[in-house]
Design a protein that fits this description.
251 residues; 8-stranded parallel β-barrel; 27% strand; alpha/beta; globular; 37% helix
Length: 251
């Protein structure tokens, strides 16, 4: 049986790890290299790093990404500021195992297909950043600076599978940084419609939230605030998940 993954989510700004609330007002919570060293020693299954400065400037600090990858002993997913094939190639050369994309879907769909053909769909994670209003869910991109119309999930999932996306990073923008729990109804809705692995993100505040996200259909959970503000560790959360009869890696 495939193990459930617990994934630290780090938002990067220059050389610091920061936390946002609903994608706004980032606060520094630590040094990036030191933080990555700690998570690398504590049984994290993967790590996702999103450079929020690069998302705005479209300038990726490849030399720093290379430093990060040297310290990260788990599969590493990198996102933020990716706009061309050269960016993708350099990120993989710097040590990324996967890339996480978002605005590329709106700006250059053909590039997604090109990346998939070269590196395989397992190398592409789509960050599905959604905000719910009275009419339904809307996409957000470019760190909440752009929005789409209402999302037709059935049409969208058919399209991204054809483009070559291999995994969904499902992020509820309104839950981001609130520690009020994941958007469980969204998790259930999405996982019932697509046959791709789904990583739940946005809102984790305690160990029980991780368990609940999995029971609603997620294949993995990503979290940040629980590690920085609550004092939980990857190990403590995994032990709790195992106690609740979820199959996680403990060695």
């Amino acid at each position: 049986m495939i193990k459930i993954r617990l994934i630290p989510l780090l938002q990067l700004y220059e050389s610091s790890v920061v936390k946002t609330r609903q994608f706004l007002n980032h606060r520094v919570v630590g040094d990036a290299i030191s933080t990555i060293k700690i998570f690398s020693k504590r049984m994290a299954d993967e790590m996702i790093i999103v450079d929020i400065k690069a998302s705005k400037t479209k300038k990726i600090n490849f030399s720093f990404i290379k430093k990060i990858s040297r310290e990260c002993i788990m599969p590493l997913t990198i996102g933020g500021g990716i706009s061309c094939m050269r960016d993708v190639d350099k990120l993989f050369e710097c040590g990324a195992d996967k890339i996480i994309i978002n605005s590329m879907y709106f700006d250059n769909k053909k590039l997604i297909k090109t990346i998939s053909k070269k590196y395989g769909n397992q190398a592409i994670v789509f960050s599905m950043d959604l905000i719910k209003d009275k009419q339904g869910y809307r996409f957000f991109s470019n760190s909440k600076r752009k929005t789409s119309g209402l999302v037709n999930l059935d049409i969208f999932f058919k399209e991204i599978k054809k483009l070559g996306v291999g995994e969904i990073f499902l992020n509820s923008v309104l839950q981001d940084g609130t520690m009020n729990g994941y958007d469980y109804n969204l998790i259930k809705k999405v996982t019932s419609k697509i046959n791709l692995p789904v990583i739940a993100a946005g809102g984790c505040g305690n160990k029980g939230d991780c368990v609940k996200a999995i029971t609603y259909g997620a294949n993995a959970v990503a979290a940040g605030s629980i590690f920085f503000w609550v004092g939980e560790s990857v190990i403590s959360v995994k032990k709790y998940m195992a106690h609740k009869n979820l199959k996680v890696r403990l060695i």
